[in-house]
Amino acid sequence: MLDDLPLLDAHCHAVTTADLDADGFARWCTEASTPAPPGVSYLDGPAGLAVRRWCAPALDLPAHAPAPDYLARRAELGAPSATRRLLRAANLGELLVDTGLPGDLTGPALAAAAGARYAEVVRLETVAERVLAAGVPAADFAPAFADALTAAAREAAAVKSILAYRHGLDIDPERPSRREVTAAAGTWLRAGARRLTDPVLLRHLLWTAVDLGRPIQLHTGFGDRDLALPRSDPSLLQRWYAMIEPTRVPIVLLHCYPYHRQAGWLAHVYPNVYIDVGLTLTHTGPRAAAILAEYFELAPFAKILYSSDAYGLAELYLVGAAQFRWALSTLLNDWWLSRADAERLARAVAADNARRVYRR
Amino acid sequence: MLDDLPLLDAHCHAVTTADLDADGFARWCTEASTPAPPGVSYLDGPAGLAVRRWCAPALDLPAHAPAPDYLARRAELGAPSATRRLLRAANLGELLVDTGLPGDLTGPALAAAAGARYAEVVRLETVAERVLAAGVPAADFAPAFADALTAAAREAAAVKSILAYRHGLDIDPERPSRREVTAAAGTWLRAGARRLTDPVLLRHLLWTAVDLGRPIQLHTGFGDRDLALPRSDPSLLQRWYAMIEPTRVPIVLLHCYPYHRQAGWLAHVYPNVYIDVGLTLTHTGPRAAAILAEYFELAPFAKILYSSDAYGLAELYLVGAAQFRWALSTLLNDWWLSRADAERLARAVAADNARRVYRR
Amino acid sequence: MLDDLPLLDAHCHAVTTADLDADGFARWCTEASTPAPPGVSYLDGPAGLAVRRWCAPALDLPAHAPAPDYLARRAELGAPSATRRLLRAANLGELLVDTGLPGDLTGPALAAAAGARYAEVVRLETVAERVLAAGVPAADFAPAFADALTAAAREAAAVKSILAYRHGLDIDPERPSRREVTAAAGTWLRAGARRLTDPVLLRHLLWTAVDLGRPIQLHTGFGDRDLALPRSDPSLLQRWYAMIEPTRVPIVLLHCYPYHRQAGWLAHVYPNVYIDVGLTLTHTGPRAAAILAEYFELAPFAKILYSSDAYGLAELYLVGAAQFRWALSTLLNDWWLSRADAERLARAVAADNARRVYRR
């Protein structure tokens, strides 16, 4: 049943259509940002296994074909053709694309290649850095950012915060005053900094996003090494979820692992908090079914969302989708559920919950 | 074998016998304290599944009957009659009831309805707030609280602390001096506060409980949103467990999830620390068997206790008991154990450990 | 296949060959350091089950023989003979022995008894305490420690840090200046302290080990109660792994539980970080297979190492090895993997990864 159900991939990124050698391909399959040491291959791990299992058949190879055979076949087809096959095999109904990361194929063209509908996710920090780089006076930063965000997000399904990368979620959640924002913007502008890391400005971005009213996707849990893992635990922002609850703006906690149990509790007790399994299932190979089940321990079923968080390789769109379908089928088979309950739960998590939250 | 074994439910609360509509019923099935947003139902999650699986047969419906059918049948029987059926179906040998929360049916009457023996659990903060509200001078608070606790706990099996709700477990564990307690009581009385949150007074309560010598139940891990989850990790109080070890007063860590692995280690290395699976199994539906097994990773088997932490609905008494029996059976079937070992382990966790710890 | 594969046990300790009564035996089977309370036995838990399952057959008893039968048979054989049988049954190819803990049988003689090759692991804190106890002037501590470590580690496969026990991993990871080291050594010497706990000196030890260039084993996660569990999370040292990455010195995170998912991410994103399953599998009995799988969620397969962390009882060498073989077989059966992939993965984790990291 899940195979025929188009997924709403609620958080994903651009793909590259360049030809890739083995090293280049492997680097896209990991959150590591530096070369592997001698004797270690980034393909010889959970994500590599998942690519070989799920993607080889889409390129006419048997599942588990060795990596060199897979790469040879990919090159034979050409990256653009392989990309199209892989995206189509994922059976996606709609993509919400975070356009804050570069790539050859993104936005509506990426969705078209996947045969899916499209909406944008706007990254708060990217908009703010653009406003600051344009030379706004410090005193005008707050209204200029609000205007820029409103314009950027006019058609967007959601906005996204990478506070976990820029500071950590252990931040004072109070709304900063206009005076504080101006002072922080002044300091930042005088320092000539590019990458926005000031905590006052970062929480101003979040509060401005709340004013905008779109769902806010929040990076939580693992990612690349630019974040401090203990400071990415989504329960560190508990006070903020409570503060903004009256606005009814949905907060979607992305990834969450290894703090996904904490995230499930947040979704249980805060009406405005949702959780998203993206990135986690892609990188955990044969463990994805066991891990997905842990997202379902406390969260109401209408609070759990699918995304792939795919970036760079079209393979990661298919891996995300196939891992999710396999993991959710495993869960539904293992659980005591009536058939009617199982079907409703599958439809909810595959797309219905996202449609409701993102108003698609 | 487990079905026939009466459980000692070592931590539970009053139930309501009022007739409930669907919303009212759903609100009792969650730790959320505010209404669910549109599209979300608190019954459509792990706890709701568990109620439908385990409780429907006790009301003559097939397992997994839809929620509206269940509620209709419950209304048809009348809440008092349904309550009695559900409590009896749980097969409980004894209840230790925390009488600090209100309800229609509590104390000995609740135990009688369940066909079980009874003992009380006395909430430290409730006693202290009563003493303070009665207008005790600050300088007399320490002896007045000690007297009031001794009186309140004369027949009690245990006392209970909700430090996690009132401050967090990240507290200085040293015993405060009499002078410090008097000063803190004075400040508190002058502020006219009702809800005791002063950390000096809270730890004075704990140390007074140690003097009393009864087992101390400690809320740890998840609960409702009034607590800060990262500050409910029971390993934050490690120094205190060591300090009080010479007194041999048992400390029972309630709930623990998602820090139950940390709790298991505490039970492993501190002779005076025990762990209790209450609340967790009730709220995690089909995941309860997998989670229960995690409590058994490091703790000596004689250190693991059962409770339901049921509150409000008689259903939660039955869900707690049924989930525990199902989860423990699953564990005993999955593990490599001799039959004799399995039976001993089941009897220990179902009641024998609690009988020893609480001297029942 | 795994039964025939000799393991490289990359972190282990001395064993006792004294005759042991039931209490003495039980005390070696736990990380608890004080007697169990009435009604609790340290053998009646996961580790005790594992000893009875895996070790009884090596002494000609059926698996799961009751503990008294096991101890009687052990006494009948005599501890030295039982020790030899147990070590041989573990099928070990090489032992890397941390010689910083005392025992009757250690070093080359221990390896010979196991029929295994041998190399040493040198404990940093032990070397430093020896240098300080020898009366070095504070200003000479840094060069004297460097010389002593170089001499002690001439033939060693690795060095080891117990920073988690002496301070916690929440330490400033910057290299201290020579002036700071001298001042800290002076303070330490004037205080006449024996057990090195000064954070400046502790991180100086780590940085001196980096200069030496041998792999560094780092205690992380659980152990006995001398450590503060929340401060043993290996992700607390993230900045240090990044700082020393250019040196290419391997850091092996030992144990890790219950932070092994955090550790797997560290191994995923830092080329110089590895994870080791020692101690965890020994103490978690029938849960070891489920837990081992969690180490494989994010780490590249070439980054995962075996050790037993056995200490005291030869039983723990066999339990560690048998639990690992059983748990890894379970994983390989449960996963979707080609047979060729499964065999390669088994060889890698059983010994090949350790051979490469420790240059054996």
Return residue spans of chain A where pLDDT drops below 50 for at least 5 consecutive residues.
none
Structural class of chain A: alpha/beta
Overall strand count of chain A: 8
CATH topology of chain A: TIM Barrel
Rg of chain A, nearest Å: 20 Å
Give the rounded overall mean pLDDT of chain A. 97
Q: How would you describe the shape of chain A? A: globular
Task: Give the CATH architecture of chain A.
Answer: Alpha-Beta Barrel
Distance N to C terminus of chain A: 22 Å
CATH class category name of chain A:
Alpha Beta
Query: How much of the residues of chain A is beta strand, in percent?
Result: 5-15%
Give the assembly state of these chains.
homotrimer
- Lateral strand order in the biggest sheet of chain A: 1-2-3-4-5-6-7-8
Structure explained in plain terms:
- The structure is a homotrimer of 360-residue chains.
- By secondary structure, the first copy, chain A, is α/β, with parallel strands linked by helices.
- Chain A has one domain: Metal-dependent hydrolases (TIM Barrel).
- In chain A, 48% of the residues lie in helices and 11% in strands.
- Chain A has an 8-stranded parallel beta sheet with strand order 1-2-3-4-5-6-7-8, sandwiched between helices.
- In chain A, α3 crosses α4, α6 packs across α7 and α7 crosses α10.
- The longest helix of chain A has 21 residues.
- Chains B and C meet through α11, α12 and α16 of B and α2 of C.
